[in-house]
Structures are given as C-alpha cells and as structure tokens.
Amino acid sequence: MPVNPMNRREFVQKSAVTGAAVAVAGAVGSGSAEASTGHAGHAPGKTPRTWSFSILGTTDLHSHVFDWDYYTDAAYTDSKGNSVGVARVATLVEQQRAAKGEGHVLLVDAGDIIQGTSLAYYFARVDPITGTDGKKGPKHPMAVAMNHMRYDAAALGNHEFNYGIEVLRKFEQQCHFPLLGANALDAKTLKPAFAPYTVKKIRVPGAPDIKVGILGLTNPGIALWDKDNVSGRMVFPGLVEQAKKYVPRLRALGCDVVFLTDHSGLDGSTSYGDALPYVENASNLVAEQVPGIDAILVGHTHVEVPSYTVKNAETGEEVLLSEPYCWGYRLTVFDFELELHHGRWKVTGKKAQTLNPNSVDEDPEITKLLKADHDLVVKYVNTAVGTCTQDLSAAESCWKDVPIMDFIHEVQMRTVAAGLSTADAALPLISVAAPFSRTADIPAGDVTIRDIAGLYIYDNTLYGKKLTGAQLKDYLEFAAKYYHQVPAGTAVDTATLTNANSFWDYMYDTAAGVSYDIDIAQAEGARIRNLTYDGAAVADDQVFVVAVNNYRANGGSGYPHIAAADIAYSSTNEIRQLMIDYITSEGTLDPADFAAADWKLTQAGTAVF
C-alpha cells in the first residue's frame, strides 16, 4: 500500500523558517518512506564524531484535540490536574524542536487516533470524512492537527478499525505521514495492507546521514474486536513474529537506529484468553525476543511508564521502552546519543522520560484550524432528545443493580427481540452489559446526546447470541472475578472491592432478565448463586438468547463460550444510537418502565447492600 508523502511545498515552507536543510522523498516499493532533515549546528569543515537526536511519542489520543470534555460540556478536569488534547502537546513539541533543533526531532504516535470522543463519532458517522450522497467529506480533525504538528509516522491502533476500513483509508489519505502496521496483512495475499515501516534520514553536516527505521505494529485483537469490519479482508499475526521479519530488514537497509511504535502494552498479558494464538500486550516480548531494536514507543493500555528497559535474550542489549499516558496527558521524549565508528553511527546512550503538557498553552494554530469543528460538535452533543423523570446515576453501578444500567439492558433486549426469527423469539431473552463510566449521569429534565454518550462511551454494535444455562453460569462466574474475595463478617469497602486495576470496569458484565446473587465471600468460580429465570432455577440445557455488544460477542475480555455461540441477531447500528432513538421515540425516559433488581452482592447468603 503506498504511503502518502507530506506535501513537498508545505514541508519546505514550514522548515525554511528554521534554516533547516530539508529534502523529502516519497514511498519506495518496499512500503517505506524516506525524509531527510538537517541541523546546521556543527562547525563547517569538521567531521562530527558525535550527534544526538530525539523521538517524541504520543499514544491513544482517541481524538482528543482540545482540553475539553464533550460529556460534561466543560473544560476537562480531574483530581490530578491533568489536561487532555494534542493542542497542548503541540506546544511541547515545538518547545522540543526549538531547544534541540528541527533536524534533531522526530514525532511518532502509537495508535488509537480516530475513535474515543464525540468529535471522533461526528466525523465518522454524522458528517463522515468519507462523504455522503456523492459529496466530498470533511477532513478529519485529527488529520488536520497531526499534519500541522508534522508527525513522521503513526502505528495503527485497534480502534482505528471501529468505523470500518473505508473510514480508516480515508483518514490515511488525509494524513501527511504514514500509518504503519507491519502485522496488518491483506487476508488473501498476506502482504502488508499498510506500510510496515518508514525510514527517516537525519542529515549530519560533514558526516553520513543517520538512518532511523521506524517499524509500526498493531494489536492482533483487532481480529476479534472488529471481526465484523475485518473478517475476510485483513489478518493480524503476532507482534513478535512480524518484528522478527522486519527488524533485520531495517538493519539490512543500513538503519543506524531501529525504533518500534507498538499498539501493544508491555506486560505480556492478554484479555482474550486463548481465543487467539498471539499475545495482546507483547512489547516486552518483542524487546526480549527480537534482536536489533533500540527503543519502543508503547501504547494501548492507557498507563504511564516513563522509562522501562528489557534485556534482549540473544544479544544482552538493553531495549528502552516508554508509554506516555493516553489522551495527550503526556508526551514521551526519547533522547539518543550516537558516535561515528568507521563510517557508521552507533547508539552510545539513550534515555526516556514523559512530559506533562498541563502547564503550557494550547497551540493557537490548532485552535484556528479546528475551533469551528469543535463548536459544531459541541452544538451537536447538546441537542436534547427527550426528558427523564428522575436523575439516573452510574456512581454505584459497579456493585449495585442501578436503573441507569437497566436502561442499557432494556434497549438491547427490545432491539434484539424485534429482530429475532420466529423460532428464536420463543426462547428466553436476556441482556449483558458493562458499566463503562462511573461518572455517567442522566439528569432529571432534558436529556441530551452527550448524556447518553457519557453513559455508553464506545461505538459498539449489538448481537444476540445463544447460550445454554450452564454456559450462562460460566459467563457470570467469569464476570464475578471482578470482585475481591471478602469473607463473611468482614466489612465491605467499595473503594477496594473491585479488581479494577486488572479486571477493568468495561470488562465486568452484569445480566438482566435473569436473577442471581454474587457471593463475594466465596472463591472465584463459585460465586454465582440462585440463578433463576422467571422464578424458576435455570437448567443447564436451557437455551437463552443473550443481547450483547459486538466487542464481547467476538471474544473481547476473554469471556467463555460467547465468541463461539450461535448468532440469533446482529446489527451494524451502534448501541448508543439505539439508546438515543429509544428516548426520541418514547419522549420520556422513565425508570418505572424498565428498572428491576436482577442481581445483588452477598456474603454467605446475606445481602451486602
């Protein structure tokens, strides 16, 4: 797949103000792109023996442009004083370029760019970048912002595929930098569907250029999580497997530095169990098992790891890794020192740190470029779609059956019921869903799109899948791992009750349509008690239709049975939009129409709350 080179005139004009010597070359047949930048910081006529440069890194930006929360309709705020958005990060990037020299700085991202905020949804679905009715679509705000910031490359994230390949390809066309995915392959040819790598040449006056190979790797979980969008079109082998193929190729091309940008965490964990043969969070394994890597920009897990080293098992060399926090909370800075030996540059030192953009101003040029888009989305999300009879809060949704979650279940069951075949309509219907946001709240009075978006923050679609009673119990036992074991007679503290650091809130499904207790005094695997349907104990061979989102239906979070279960219903409509349609149709959201106490926590049979 050809890489979109940066517009030559735009690049040269931007670089001319710094006095940097710039040359730009397009994609080559191997799928790499080359660009040369220089820095006139060495005395003429002398061959430098040492040189330094930096690679700046972001990840999991999730379409956060400005320091704004579309769900609360206010400037972003949290208890730690963080800011969000690339507009502030852009200021840090320019500070780094000013301090170190244009020719000493590269800028890279590790994926999950075009999904995650109402801004992202608007330009994927409401006014899509792909265009509507034969009309050309707008430019994606993230493409505009990242082009302005002069990114050199970005890895594909798994959420890049949420809106389908057509939207992703249009975004790729709009970017002036390559989207890299060495393990995103065409399903038929098994050749790269995107550029695997790019090669940047850093010009050193009076000495050979420093060649920096940047290899991009994405997450194999895409095959499960976005199965509906990629099945039969793309396949996603493991990061280690593809790095073993391409790192030697970059070295053979004469790269002095090999840098990886991985949309994959660094702890070797996997949320999809044995559904795939590849590890989800494999950056540490790549560093350990693939020789020839200098450093890795890590993404996907939404944590901050300023600096981390892994020793390569074959060479004994230390590989430097760093993961900046998501949403533009942080910017990673990799600093490299090199020496010239026999005409070749060797890395002699490297370090990494993260910088916090919360103390700098937003880049005024990004504000100029994108404020109109931002204002358009603010107006959209504040559109009222109905009213609610009382305040519905998700604050206790992780340990109590609350009406706001029953709203999700009601919409899922009503939608699936309307789409079932006559035979499947005779089966008992239930729903499973997770509490995505503890801060979600639907107020009494007018209900807006942002109120619903704040409750259902993902762009999931809806399935109906068939599970037996025995399988359903296994499913709920898996969900009950979410809670720490709290012996009978011991006080329950909600602040420490959940395993939310390893079994996150979005992984925890509750069920509606059946009744059950979760006995947190028991060990994992023996917690589901009194599982009944319509007042009778659920039989092991009883067959249910389960309304469930596509992420879970395709194996997300590793729940048992559900991925392989027979499909009774499927739709491409987002659950969030179905919720908006429900309120629009009913006019009023009244928990009296759907709220039910289906489950509760117990300790040795005694209700906790």
From TrEMBL:
The keyword Nucleotidyltransferase does not apply. GO terms for biological process: nucleotide catabolic process. This is Twin-arginine translocation signal domain-containing protein. It holds the Pfam family 5_nucleotid_C. GO terms for cellular component: outer membrane-bounded periplasmic space. Its cofactor is a divalent metal cation. It comes from the Bacteria. InterPro entries: 5'-Nucleotdase_C, 5'-Nucleotdase_C_sf, 5'-Nucleotdase_CS, 5_nucleotidase/apyrase, Calcineurin-like_PHP, CpdB_N, Metallo-depent_PP-like, TAT_signal. The lineage of its organism: Bacteria, Bacillati, Actinomycetota, Actinomycetes, Kitasatosporales. It is found in: Cell envelope.
